């Protein structure tokens, strides 16, 4: 049959819109969007028919349009299985929230709340009041405020307390946390002049003393969250530094980064300075994140002396950096969990995942190995391995936690097949993200809690075949 005769057999958009097959799509996506999708499919079909193809059934055309609508409607903010072994992965959204935090956030999303309203006297209240007492109780600080994230906390603190003046920092602490946060850049944005002292590996008390002058606004100490300088090193401890600052009437700001509220030694991790310790050591202001080791939503805490917090709160920049009721509610619920530290590892996902014993993870790996083997159709060698998980988000860069997982090794060590497998895993309905290490794809199971969901998801895997196209 001539192509232009067959072209006449292609149904029109109107005919298709009236057919029963698209009723459901219209219900879901609305008539204009369905009509647009059908037009797209029909235009492609016309091209194919001109090239000699047959005309698909109206049912098939409707199905193609529906598939296009569904693909276009899927959020790019996809849920996935984090099997990288990094518990707090910045690119994968950091901390998972506790149920109590999720419930609290959901409740305030639905309801009107006394966010800045004092129910006692009916006057205006302050949004920080909901957290202030709790943070002070948990950290020993006099006062506290909360902003968008720790980068904002540092920016706001520096600008409020030393805008137009000098801030002294050791060269060993001029950190970069993931591309966008570089201490010298943040300092410049905040309007303070950076005065670098000491050397990369050694900074002495006299370096601080010699740098202090009439233009000095504050001394800044930065926790080297994501690296360690080892060997011939010297740093001035927080306590001694507080002494030097106070001798000269200057505030000491301590940017802790992760700033845990509890001792991590119990999870077999190295000691990370706690916020209470930093306060006890004499820092006038301590800043830290909400979604790193604390295990809450993204936020930045500024805690310390009342007079300084008041000054920070008066800065107009504070208004631009504040958090909304949803995060406040989630933060409050998360902080409350710290009142019962013994049950923290049951209730707070970050602690639960960090505390998971290796034996438990190994057993899980043994259980899952046969399913993974079946899913890769024997192309990759699957073995149970021990590995090391990391905390992530710049906390404890050198301290890892013993873990277990599955190593998927390609035949004859083919790097191409390994990359193809990683791609196939990312294309699953619930993408699986592992890490490539020494010629294998490692799936660290520390963060795998939904085992059934993982197995069901594997049924959709389309693994690369040996000798498949390059
Ligand atoms: C992570 C980190 C920051 C930035 O915190 P965000 O909450 O990611 O904005 C700042 N300083 C230090 C020392 C950090 O470790």
TrEMBL record:
<keyword id="KW-0963">Cytoplasm</keyword>
<dbReference type="InterPro" id="IPR004534">
    <property type="entry name" value="SelA_trans"/>
</dbReference>
<comment type="function">
    <text>Converts seryl-tRNA(Sec) to selenocysteinyl-tRNA(Sec) required for selenoprotein biosynthesis.</text>
</comment>
<keyword id="KW-0648">Protein biosynthesis</keyword>
<dbReference type="GO" id="GO:0004125">
    <property type="term" value="F:L-seryl-tRNA(Sec) selenium transferase activity"/>
</dbReference>
<dbReference type="InterPro" id="IPR015421">
    <property type="entry name" value="PyrdxlP-dep_Trfase_major"/>
</dbReference>
<keyword id="KW-0663">Pyridoxal phosphate</keyword>
<dbReference type="Pfam" id="PF03841">
    <property type="entry name" value="SelA"/>
</dbReference>
<dbReference type="Pfam" id="PF12390">
    <property type="entry name" value="Se-cys_synth_N"/>
</dbReference>
<comment type="pathway">
    <text>Aminoacyl-tRNA biosynthesis; selenocysteinyl-tRNA(Sec) biosynthesis; selenocysteinyl-tRNA(Sec) from L-seryl-tRNA(Sec) (bacterial route): step 1/1.</text>
</comment>
<dbReference type="InterPro" id="IPR025862">
    <property type="entry name" value="SelA_trans_N_dom"/>
</dbReference>
<dbReference type="InterPro" id="IPR015424">
    <property type="entry name" value="PyrdxlP-dep_Trfase"/>
</dbReference>
<feature type="modified residue" description="N6-(pyridoxal phosphate)lysine">
    <location>
        <position position="292"/>
    </location>
</feature>
<comment type="similarity">
    <text>Belongs to the SelA family.</text>
</comment>
<dbReference type="InterPro" id="IPR018319">
    <property type="entry name" value="SelA-like"/>
</dbReference>
<feature type="domain" description="L-seryl-tRNA selenium transferase N-terminal">
    <location>
        <begin position="7"/>
        <end position="46"/>
    </location>
</feature>
<keyword id="KW-0711">Selenium</keyword>
<keyword id="KW-0808">Transferase</keyword>
<protein>
    <recommendedName>
        <fullName>L-seryl-tRNA(Sec) selenium transferase</fullName>
        <ecNumber>2.9.1.1</ecNumber>
    </recommendedName>
</protein>
């Amino acid at each position: 049959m001539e192509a232009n005769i067959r072209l006449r057999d292609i149904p029109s958009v109107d005919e298709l819109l009236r057919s029963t097959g698209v009723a459901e799509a219209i219900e879901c996506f609305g008539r204009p969007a369905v009509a647009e999708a059908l037009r797209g499919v029909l235009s492609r079909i016309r091209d194919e028919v001109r090239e000699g193809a047959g005309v698909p059934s109206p049912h098939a055309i409707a199905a193609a349009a529906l598939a296009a609508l569904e693909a276009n409607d899927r959020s790019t903010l996809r849920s996935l299985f984090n099997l990288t072994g990094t518990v707090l992965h910045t690119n994968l959204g950091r901390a998972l929230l506790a149920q109590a935090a999720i419930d609290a956030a959901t409740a305030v999303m639905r309801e009107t709340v006394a966010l800045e309203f004092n129910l006692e006297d009916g006057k205006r209240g302050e949004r920080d009041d909901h957290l202030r007492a709790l943070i002070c109780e948990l950290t020993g600080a006099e006062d506290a405020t909360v902003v968008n994230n720790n980068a904002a906390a540092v920016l706001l603190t520096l600008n409020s307390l030393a805008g137009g003046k000098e801030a002294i920092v050791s060269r060993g602490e001029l950190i970069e946390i993931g591309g966008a946060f570089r201490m010298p850049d943040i300092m410049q944005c905040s309007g303070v002049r950076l005065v670098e002292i000491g050397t990369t590996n050694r900074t002495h008390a006299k370096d601080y003393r010699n740098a202090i002058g009439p233009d000095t606004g504050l001394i800044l100490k930065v926790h080297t969250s994501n690296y360690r300088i080892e060997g011939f090193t010297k740093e001035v401890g927080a306590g001694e530094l507080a002494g030097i600052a106070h001798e000269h009437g200057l505030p000491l700001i301590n940017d802790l980064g992760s700033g845990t509220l509890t001792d991590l030694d119990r999870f077999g991790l190295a000691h990370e300075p706690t916020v209470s310790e930093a306060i006890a050591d004499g820092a006038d202001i301590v800043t830290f994140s909400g979604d790193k080791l604390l295990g809450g939503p993204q936020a930045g805490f500024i805690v310390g002396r009342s007079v300084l917090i008041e000054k920070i709160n008066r800065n107009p920049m504070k208004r631009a950096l504040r958090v909304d009721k949803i995060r406040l509610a989630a933060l409050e619920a998360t902080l409350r969990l710290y009142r019962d530290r013994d049950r923290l590892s049951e209730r707070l996902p970050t602690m639960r995942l960090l505390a998971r014993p290796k034996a438990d993870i190994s057993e899980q790996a043994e259980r899952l190995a046969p399913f993974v083997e079946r899913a890769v159709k024997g192309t990759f060698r699957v073995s149970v391995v021990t590995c090391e998980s990391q905390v992530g988000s710049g906390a404890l860069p050198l301290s890892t936690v013993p873990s277990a997982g599955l190593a998927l090794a390609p035949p004859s060590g083919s790097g191409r097949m390994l990359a193809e497998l990683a791609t196939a895993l990312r294309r699953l309905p619930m993408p699986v993200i592992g890490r490539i290490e020494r010629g294998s794809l490692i799936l660290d199971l520390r963060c795998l809690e939904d085992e059934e969901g993982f197995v069901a998801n594997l049924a959709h895997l389309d693994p690369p075949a040996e000798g498949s196209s390059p």
